[in-house]
Automatic annotation (TrEMBL):
Subcellular localization: Cytoplasm
Presence of the UniProt keyword Nucleotide-binding in the record: yes
Protein's recorded name: Peptide chain release factor 3
GO terms of molecular function: GTP binding; GTPase activity; guanosine tetraphosphate binding; translation release factor activity, codon nonspecific; translation release factor activity, codon specific
Gene: prfC
One GO-annotated biological process of the protein: regulation of translational termination
Length: 527
C-alpha cells in the first residue's frame, strides 16, 4: 500500500509550450510512447483527427490545421504518474492555453533549432513568468542545419530573460549531427536515424569524454567536442535546482523529436528535476497538496466532443488530497454538495472511469452547465482558488439573429459558450445587444459554427464600435456616476460582473482620469 504522500509525490503535471510547428505534437507522441500509452507512432496525430470525426464543428479545426481544444493525457513512467496537458498552438485560443498553464506545476518549452525563439514562445513565457513556472527546454530538429547551439542559448537568455543550463550538448547538426553529450552523466549517445525510433535512433551510448571509442567513432570531431564541452562548462550556468524551481533557470536538452532522439533524457528530467505537485493559493490560505482533504479547481470547460450529447466536461485540477469515485464534494460557489460518480480521465488511449485521483491529477466531471470556469470544489471548507484569469478581449462583435424567434436559443447558446470560455459575452446597460468579445478573431468563427451546429441558431456577427473592455470595481455611488456620464459604455459580462466597454483608448483614458476611485482591470479572476 502506498501512502497519500507517496502517491502525490510521484505525480508530475506539465504542459508543452511552443510556437506552432516547433514539434509539440511530435514530442507529445514520443513521450506517450515511452509511457507505453501508445503502441504506434502517429497515433496522437491520428487521434487528433479522429476524436473529432463525430463533431462537425471540429471540421473547422481540421481545415485550418489548428487545435482548438486542449486535452489531458496521463501515463506511467518509471515510478511516476505523468499528467501531460495539451495546449492549443494557435494564438487565437491563447486564453485556453493561459488557463491550462494555471493547472500545471511545470512546462516543457520546445524550440526549433532552425528558427530559434519565436513570437508565440515569448508570449507563453510571459504567462509562465506570472507564476514562476519551472521550465525545461528542448531544442528540437538537430537533424536539420540549424543555428549554432551557443547562439540559440544566447537568444533564449537575451529574449526570454531566463538563464540556460545545458544538460546535453549536441555534436554537429544537420547531416553532420552525430549525437549528444550528457554533461551531468558524462555519456555520449550516438545518433543514427537508420535505427528504429523505438530505440531512440541511438546506435551506441558510451561513458566518458576521454573514452578512446569516442575517437574511433568521431575522428577529429572528438577533440572538437572535448574543447566545446570545456568551453560550455566554463561559459554557461550549471544546473541549479532552486533557480530552476523558481523559474529563473531552464535546463536545456538537445534532440530530434521526430527521430525520438534525446526524448528519453527529457522525460527522465521531468521525473528527476521537475516539481511534485505544488501548493496553491486560495483567497484565504495556501493549500498544501498533502492535506488529507480533497480540493481542486476547474480550469477548463469543454463541450462534449459528441454534439448530440449536450453535456460538458469540467476539467478539474486536484490540488490536495485524494479523490475517489462517488465522493461527495462541495461546489463552493453555490454551496451545493454533489456526489461525483462519473469522473473521467483522458488516458492517452481512451477515456476511462476514474476510481481515484490524487493531487496533481486532472479529472473530468461531466455536467449540464452547472459547473463554471474557475470554480473550487472541496470536502466542505469554503476555499476559493485564485489566479484563473479572463483577459480583456481585443475584438468585439455584435450578434445579430437571422430568425428573431430564436432569441432564447441565441442567449442560451452564447451564455453557455461564454461559460466554457469559448468567447466572452457582454451586455451594455442601455440596450438588449449581445456583444461578443474575443482575444483572437478565429473564436468568432468557432462560436458561429457551434451556435448553428449545437443550438440550431443562425447568427451573424457584425462589427461594433467597441475598442476594449475593462472590468470595473467601485462603490455603487461611483458606478451610478460613471453610468450617468457614460451610459453607452457600461454593462455587464456573462457572469454579471460590471464592465466598461470603451469606444477608444482615449475614451478609456478619460474615464479613468475622471474616476480615480474606480478600478479598471484588464483581467478578471474567474471564480
Ligand atoms: P507542432 O505544431 O508544434 O505540434 O509541430 P509538429 O509536431 O506537428 O511538427 C511540425 C513539423 O516538424 C512536422 O512536419 C514534423 O514532422 C516536423 N518535425 C518534428 N520534429 C522534428 C525533428 O526532430 N526533425 C525534423 N527534421 N522535423 C521535425
Amino acid at each position: 500500500m502506498t501512502t497519500l504522500r507517496e502517491e502525490i509525490d510521484r505525480r508530475r503535471t506539465f504542459a508543452i509550450i511552443s510556437h506552432p510547428d516547433a514539434g509539440k505534437t511530435t514530442l507529445t507522441e514520443k513521450l506517450l510512447w515511452f509511457g507505453g500509452a501508445i503502441q504506434v507512432a502517429g497515433e496522437v496525430r491520428a487521434r487528433k483527427a479522429s476524436r473529432h470525426a463525430t463533431s462537425d464543428w471540429m471540421e473547422l479545426e481540421k481545415q485550418r490545421g489548428i487545435s482548438v481544444t486542449s486535452s489531458v493525457m496521463q501515463f506511467p513512467y518509471r515510478d511516476c504518474m505523468i499528467n501531460l496537458l495539451d495546449t492549443p498552438g494557435h494564438e487565437d485560443f491563447s486564453e485556453d492555453t493561459y488557463r491550462t498553464l494555471t493547472a500545471v506545476d511545470s512546462a516543457v518549452m520546445v524550440i526549433d533549432s532552425v528558427k530559434g525563439v519565436e513570437e508565440r514562445t515569448i508570449k507563453l513565457l510571459d504567462v509562465c513568468r506570472l507564476r514562476d513556472t519551472p521550465i525545461l527546454t528542448f531544442i528540437n530538429k538537430l537533424d536539420r542545419e540549424g543555428r549554432s547551439p551557443v547562439d540559440l542559448l544566447d537568444e533564449i537568455e537575451d529574449v526570454l530573460k531566463i538563464q540556460c543550463a545545458p544538460i546535453t550538448w549536441p555534436i554537429g547538426m544537420g547531416k553532420g549531427f552525430r549525437g549528444v553529450y550528457h554533461l551531468v552523466e558524462d555519456t555520449i549517445a550516438f545518433f543514427d536515424p537508420t535505427q528504429p525510433s523505438e530505440k531512440g535512433a541511438t546506435s551506441e551510448v558510451i561513458q566518458g569524454l576521454d573514452n578512446p571509442r569516442l575517437d574511433e567513432l568521431l575522428g577529429s570531431q572528438a577533440d572538437e567536442l572535448r574543447l566545446d564541452v570545456e568551453l560550455v562548462r566554463g561559459a554557461s550556468h550549471s544546473f541549479d535546482r532552486d533557480a530552476y524551481l523558481s523559474g529563473k533557470q531552464c535546463p536545456v536538452f538537445f534532440g530530434s523529436a521526430v527521430n525520438n532522439f534525446g526524448v528519453r533524457s527529457l522525460l527522465d528530467a521531468v521525473v528527476d528535476m521537475s516539481p511534485t505537485p505544488l501548493a496553491r493559493a486560495t483567497e484565504t490560505r495556501q493549500v498544501d497538496p498533502h492535506e488529507e482533504k480533497f480540493s481542486g479547481f476547474v480550469f477548463k470547460i469543454q463541450a462534449n466532443m459528441d454534439p448530440k450529447h449536450r453535456d460538458r466536461i469540467a476539467f478539474l485540477r486536484v490540488c490536495s488530497g485524494r479523490f475517489e469515485r462517488g465522493m461527495k464534494v462541495k461546489q463552493v460557489a453555490g454551496g451545493k454538495t454533489l456526489a461525483i460518480n462519473n469522473a473521467i480521465t483522458f488516458m492517452a488511449r481512451d477515456r476511462s472511469t476514474t476510481d481515484e485521483a490524487y493531487a496533481g491529477d486532472i479529472i473530468g466531471i461531466p455536467n449540464h452547465g452547472t459547473i463554471r470556469l474557475g470554480e473550487t470544489f472541496t470536502e466542505g471548507e469554503n476555499l476559493r482558488f485564485t489566479g484563473i484569469p479572463s483577459f480583456a478581449p481585443e475584438f468585439f462583435q455584435r450578434a445579430i439573429l437571422r430568425n428573431p424567434l430564436k432569441m432564447k436559443q441565441l442567449q442560451k447558446g452564447l451564455q453557455q459558450l461564454a461559460e466554457e470560455g469559448a468567447t466572452q459575452l457582454f451586455r451594455p446597460s442601455v440596450s438588449n445587444e449581445l456583444i461578443l468579445g474575443a482575444v483572437g478573431t478565429l473564436q468568432f468563427d468557432v462560436v458561429a459554427y457551434r451556435l448553428k451546429d449545437e443550438y440550431d441558431v443562425d447568427a451573424v456577427f457584425e462589427s461594433c464600435p467597441i475598442n476594449t473592455a475593462r472590468w470595473i470595481k467601485c462603490s455603487d455611488e461611483d458606478f451610478r456616476k460613471l453610468s450617468d456620464l457614460y451610459p453607452n459604455n457600461v454593462g455587464t459580462d456573462g457572469a454579471g460582473d460590471r464592465v466598461y466597454l470603451a469606444s477608444s483608448r482615449v475614451n478609456l483614458q478619460l474615464a479613468q482620469e475622471r474616476f480615480p476611485n474606480v478600478q479598471f482591470s484588464e483581467t478578471r479572476e474567474v471564480h
